[in-house]
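Supplementary Text 2. Reproducibility record for the structural model of the 102-residue chain.

All settings were left at their defaults, and a single model was retained for analysis rather than an ensemble. We include the record here because the model underlies the residue-level annotations in Supplementary Table 4.
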Amino acid sequence: MNQLQLDLPPPRARRADPQTSKAAALRVKHGELYQLVLWSLATSGAGSSHDVAARLSASLVSISPRMKPLEVAGFITRSGVRDGRTIWEVTPAGVAACAGAK
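Retained model, structure tokens:
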């Protein structure tokens, strides 16, 4: 899988967070996380943040914050709610981004 060219914000720590949290935020490979989330939704279909985290064997706290930036960028959209959780699906722009990264 080639790297998607996504211009999305990196993870950040809050001002009140300890220095260890701020250092951890700098080490996160956020581009890979965005790419994995988008690929999961494109290949496995729509799902919640919980679904995507389970598919990727990743923690929810790593996956959930990637949804809003992908939505703002136009790569995913909200398609409904199931069991109180937002369901996300890939947009045509998200499909095109995945196709361009093959």
